[in-house]
Write a structure and sequence with these properties.
The complex is a heteropentamer, with two copies of chain A, one copy of chain B and two copies of chain C. Chain B is an alpha/beta fold. Chain B has twelve helices and ten strands. Bound molecules: adenosine-5'-triphosphate (2 copies) and magnesium ion (2 copies).
């Protein structure tokens, strides 16, 4: 069993889910607390990558990242290689595709925080940023876990976008989901099963740990 | 190439999978270079190559894509090479009650056959060929409602393997592959039943290893390469170009 | 001198049924100001506006020389810039932080050590030091209230807003905290706005008092004056004047600072403090049940001028305070102790005398 | 007769620092029982255990003949089956439901019409009828408290638990609600357990009283007896006995029901009620500051036996109650009215006499 | 432009997301409030379908639904046709695949409900079921919307599983995502773009409405 794709995938999923959470935190905060009344429209826009078939999204992304697009050209000029068919390209595409899984749970968790606590924080002199870090975020812990889990798992399993944008290059963009897919295509069910079981086992272990920790952590409300 | 060993990057149509494994292994042995093969749908590769995919050689499942790449200036015109012709088979699992080997097309009309798996004729060359063949023998209308469409021939085979479909129209190269050979029985569809599935390869213009790519093509054209192809279910284009028997 | 806090506020709550309007203007000096008034009078709304949590529809709020809010000049300092400490009626402790972390929340600038020291000190003085590593969900209601107080006081505000901060505390703790608060403010001299319903708290804390009703200020001044001379009937009842009497002015004795009035529907006359009234005018008097003395023999040689003969009509001994209804032509409610009932051997039907001091009689406008 | 509620409870809260243990046994008759005690005494914990929200570590709770909880028999009726109405200290109104929906929540069986009628009636009697379509976030603190009360009372419970249900209400409203509650229970005769810190509420509601401290019952009985003769120092302070004095018993006069004691560290002697004590024994006395009279001339011909000469050491006029410290060898705190100060022309240093009735002196065990 | 796949997809997504929410409500309630201490393990299991590449999951499902499996045989006996290559099969497969998107946000929303309110409900005599319906569910509204949106959008866009289990039968199992994919593969970019734009437009409209309504709805907490 060739484990390189597995490590590649884990690396990709870890990077993507962390970046995703980093990107989604301010975005979700703005969607939840912002002033602009039309921001629900943007909320809808962020969910749209989901409704396209992944391969097709991948195809559009390929056009957007390719050397003929401004973004691709810029990247090429800056880093000497194209964004498509590179690990960075995969990261970028997965970010876009998994964004709704990170943004949505965060927005809904943020909205659930008692505004009275925000008032309390402001009255104690805390800036909106400090209030976000010290009050909103810890009280949205469970939503944060959901965001992390969904985006991590989804990135691990994603294959349409990754195949299209990454080109299935061994060691560079061949993720474990592509490798499993390939094995199935080659009727090598033994290899497919082994890889799938390993992936499931690792994922199960990781998710169990996350959930167990999540359970332990204080419930946001009083126990009485 | 006495210099540093290089890595050749090949994009190959899925039906070449088993042939290519042998070819690559032999080529690596002979030259000391490494060969990385990525399998997939020719259409995807076509789109990806247009976006700058870093392949050296492209083995397509038809000859249109390579030709278009040449026309677009993305491939070296001199390297265009029709390396094989694909063949269709009717394939059933080994334990199937339907005697496809002897009954041929007639087997498709057996009441035990409820679903017939083919690759999607909209974009898969073998799917197109399957529909053409069914039409040419005049049973398309009678089996159309039984057809289910896989994304490619592998999926069509899996529909059958999982028991959900009873027969598939596959590439000959798959039917003789190590895994499927023992798992099923097949009947070769006459080449005349559909337009020839001409498969072509081409060296990409962006390749920094054109010489190595060329030498791989040379190896393919060599008797050893040709015999590997034949063993894996591909006929040579020269044989196919001869007028099919029965046609005036 | 500019007032330590001056606020002119108009704020409307639009509810599904009717609307509540807060409309007032206050100027506060340093020290305690009690905000008193019935439930729903607008006390919390006033504090919310001052703290910057509610945006007034119109008006101006200034602390010293700094404008916090001015609808005309479109100034609206956000709450976190106002440096106002506010203990909410609902407390709003952070459920995920320990008592210690809650208390230190408003001290981000300090070094860890200094913060710890200051937090420990204030928790100690509020008697909740040993709870410091608990979460708000794991302490009692009164303990929560003390932590909320500590959390606000430990910052360096320029103004303190307290919305019923002692309601869940027992008498002893309250008394202690009052002393602590006084000491705390002795050097600081901040204006402190404290909402309460409790007469005890008014008595213990009040230097100045404003009384709200229906969103308006209906009385303002020294607590004892405000509460002793309620100007409005609703307030009189809220402040616990059990006896409300209709009377007619008989004559004024300006040199003594008193006047005589006749109670309506009976022959009883009373000497009451002088007021801006003319003979013949109808007025309303309020007398607290606890301010009336009861005697079983006609008392003599007293400084009190009003001694009314009557008869005990009812005697309710269910509580720790005995409620005696005495019929003197009109009925008076008198509160006395169970010991007095025993000692005097009081019984229904027994003839008694009521003694009412002149200055226990208050005027009420309605 | 089986008690309407009988509870034997042991329950430990395990906190990060130390542990709190509730350990008591109570039997309640129908009618009001006041639960009194300092903050953190375990009052809310007791109510939580009875309601089934906390699971006691051991014990038995029974309502009439039905066992609600029995650790020995492994019985633990879930809260929703106990038919106990409980008004939480934190109220816990449903934030997404209107006042009307909140109030009707416990009446799922009724027809819409009947439910509406009953809800309207109780909201009316609690003075919050016009808020019926508002959400809890849109009404005042006192209004919320009344809605929470209405929500509990409208169901048909067999037991009522009230955790400081009147703390955010003004005197007038409180008095009204007390009357309503009494009337409500007149026909029902439910046991009502009511937690409060307020002497007013004890006076108005108390028929029976239990006093908790550190998780144990330290006194039980009629409110006035319990409060007048506090058995424990902490409770004495909590109940507002400002003067705590060390004394030695001199002699017993059993026929008069009194005894004489000498205060420690001075020559003052007092006549106090008889107690189970022997001459020479040390005891502690508690006297309320409000129970002490102050005179500027030596009074004569009084029934009071204790008249102590002294000197005014301090005079605090900041509140509506003037706090006078009088030095009679030991220092006494005396509460008098500002009017008395004026009339008597009191000043620091002035010689005065204190008058203390025998029965104003209470014993305290510590 | 052939709109049949679009309607099929919308029907599928509507059915799946509604069924999914119906299935997830009790499941999430149990995960959030249940007694069994090991239930975090099951929580991890429910997220696992996500980590497999869809086509591979589809392949395993094909085996599980096929005539040789007990489930497939039973279905065949009951309804006279196999689960594979049928609309019902698609529904079943999509349910399984999108389950985590419905369960996760619900669990985290349920956990955020103040337990004091649950106590209040119990004390007022409400059963756990009534408490769930009248208190937990309305206070988790935002999580419910997230669950619906994510599962709806994900079902619309899913294509690997659907293709494998459904067999791409026009009118029966050819969803719009497969149709777009096929058009792209056939280099019929015009048709692909038209279909994709229509899908995006409809999805955008639907999501905007959902979000707008979500915004209007009472915030669970007091406004003060
Ligand atoms: N979950 C908990 N974990 C640990 N300790 C607790 C917990 N809940 C309460 N306590 C402690 O138990 C003691 C009794 O609490 P309880 O709430 O019963 O007091 P109370 O008499 O109601 O006080 P108050 O009048 O202030 O409401 C307190 O000291 C409190 O800190
Ligand atoms: N968001 C709101 N929308 C509509 N009306 C409101 C809102 N908030 C408060 N009110 C109403 O405004 C009035 C004043 O409320 P406020 O909270 O200021 O009263 P309060 O004096 O603090 O009363 P309490 O002593 O009961 O706390 C009340 O009648 C209340 O119902
Ligand atoms: Mg208020
Ligand atoms: Mg309590």
């Amino acid at each position: 069993m060739n484990l390189a794709p597995l490590f590649l995938s884990l690396r990709l999923a870890a990077i993507v889910s962390l970046l995703l959470v980093a990107v989604s935190l301010p975005l979700a905060a703005w969607l939840a607390f912002g002033r602009w009344r039309g921001r629900f429209l943007l909320e809808a826009v962020f969910a749209l990558p989901l409704v396209l078939p992944p391969t097709v999204l991948g195809f559009y992304l390929l056009l957007a990242l390719g050397p003929r697009s401004p973004l691709g050209a810029l990247w090429q000029a800056l880093f000497g290689h194209g964004l498509a068919f590179s690990f960075e390209g995969l990261v970028f595409a997965s970010l876009l595709y998994s964004l709704p899984f990170a943004v949505q749970p965060l927005v809904s968790a943020f909205r659930g925080v008692d505004p009275k606590l925000l008032s309390a924080s402001f009255v104690l002199g805390a800036s909106p940023l400090r209030t976000f870090r010290r009050v909103v975020l810890p009280l949205s812990y469970s939503g944060l876990v959901t965001a992390l889990v969904l985006s991590f798992a989804h990135t691990l399993g994603e294959f349409g976008v990754v195949l299209m944008v990454g080109g299935n290059l061994p060691g560079v963009t061949r993720t474990v989901s592509i490798a499993i897919y390939d094995s199935v295509q080659a009727f090598d069910y033994g290899e497919a099963n082994r890889l799938a079981l390993t992936l499931l086992g690792i994922s199960f272990a990781a998710l169990s740990v996350i959930y167990a920790v999540n359970r332990r952590v204080w419930s946001p409300w009083s126990s009485r | 190439s006495a210099a540093q060993p290089e890595t050749l990057s090949i994009a190959a149509a899925s039906d070449l999978r088993f042939a290519m494994q042998e070819l690559a292994a032999r080529f690596e042995q002979q030259t000391g270079n490494k060969v990385n093969v990525t399998y997939g749908s020719s259409g995807n590769f076509f789109a990806q190559i247009q976006s700058g995919a870093p392949f050296d050689l492209f083995f397509s499942a038809d000859s249109d894509y390579p030709r278009q790449l040449v026309a677009a200036g993305l491939a070296e015109s001199g390297t265009f090479y029709e390396y094989a012709v694909g063949r269709l088979v009717l394939w059933v699992p080994a334990d199937s009650p339907v005697d496809v080997v002897h009954r041929g097309w007639d087997a498709l009309l057996d009441p035990a056959i409820r679903k017939i798996a083919i690759a999607n004729p909209q974009h898969a060359p073998y799917g197109r060929a399957a529909v053409a063949a069914l039409k040419s023998v005049g049973i398309y209308e009678r089996v159309e409602s039984k057809l289910v469409y896989g994304e490619n021939i592998s999926q069509a085979a899996q529909f059958v393997q999982s028991g959900n479909a009873q027969v598939a129209l596959l590439a000959y190269s798959l039917a003789v592959s190590p895994t499927l050979q023992s798992a099923g029985k097949y009947w070769e569809v006459p080449a005349a039943a559909h337009p020839p599935l001409l498969q072509a390869a081409v060296v990409l213009r962006s390749s920094p290893r054109k010489a190595l790519a060329q030498s791989f093509l040379q190896f393919l054209k060599s008797p050893e390469g040709q015999s590997i192809l034949r063993r894996n279910g591909f006929t040579s284009p020269a044989a196919a170009a001869a007028p099919p028997p029965g046609k005036p | 001198m500019t007032a330590a806090l001056s606020a002119r506020i108009r704020k409307q709550h639009r509810g599904p049924v009717g609307a509540f309007v807060l409309d007032l203007s206050v100027d506060l000096a340093p020290g305690f100001t009690i905000v008193f008034g019935p439930s729903g009078a607008g006390k919390s709304t006033l504090l919310d506006c001052i703290a910057g949590l509610e945006r007034p529809d119109a008006g101006r709020i200034a602390a010293g020389s700094e404008t916090l809010f001015d609808s005309a000049a479109a100034v609206n300092l956000p709450a976190q810039k106002r440096r106002i400490a506010y203990v909410f009626q609902t407390l709003a402790l952070f459920p995920h932080l320990t008592v210690e972390e809650n208390t230190g929340y408003g001290l981000p600038g300090l070094s860890t050590e200094e913060r710890r020291a200051r937090v420990a000190e204030i928790l100690e003085s509020f008697g909740v030091a040993d709870l410091q590593s608990r979460k708000p969900g794991e302490i009692s209601g009164g303990e929560r209230q003390r932590v909320a107080l500590a959390r606000s006081l430990v910052t360096s505000p320029r103004l303190l807003l307290l919305d019923e901060p002692f309601s869940a505390l027992d008498a002893d703790l309250k008394a202690e905290l009052f002393d602590d608060l006084r000491a705390w403010n002795a050097t600081r001299q901040l204006p402190i706005l404290c909402v309460t319903h409790s007469r005890d708290e008014v008595d213990a804390l009040g230097e100045h008092m404003i009384v709200l009703d229906h969103g308006r200020i209906v009385a303002e001044g020294f607590p004892r004056d405000v509460l002793r001379a309620p100007r409005r009937k609703r307030l009189a009842v809220a402040a616990g004047f059990e006896n409300l009497l209709q009377a007619t002015v008989l004559d004024l004795r300006e040199s003594d600072g008193v006047m005589r009035v006749a109670l309506k529907d009976c022959s009883v006359e009373l000497e009451v403090p002088l007021a801006h009234a003319l003979p013949g005018q109808s007025i309303q008097l309020a007398i607290r049940a606890g301010d009336i003395l009861l005697a079983t023999e006609q008392p003599g040689g007293l400084s009190a001028r009003n001694v009314l003969p009557g008869k005990i009509a009812a005697l309710d001994e269910t509580g720790a305070v005995v409620r005696v209804v005495v019929d003197c032509g009109v009925r008076f409610l008198v509160h006395i102790t169970p010991g007095a009932v025993r000692k005097l051997g009081l019984q229904t039907g027994q003839p008694v005398w009521l003694v009412v001091k002149t200055h226990s009689c208050h005027f009420v406008a309605d």
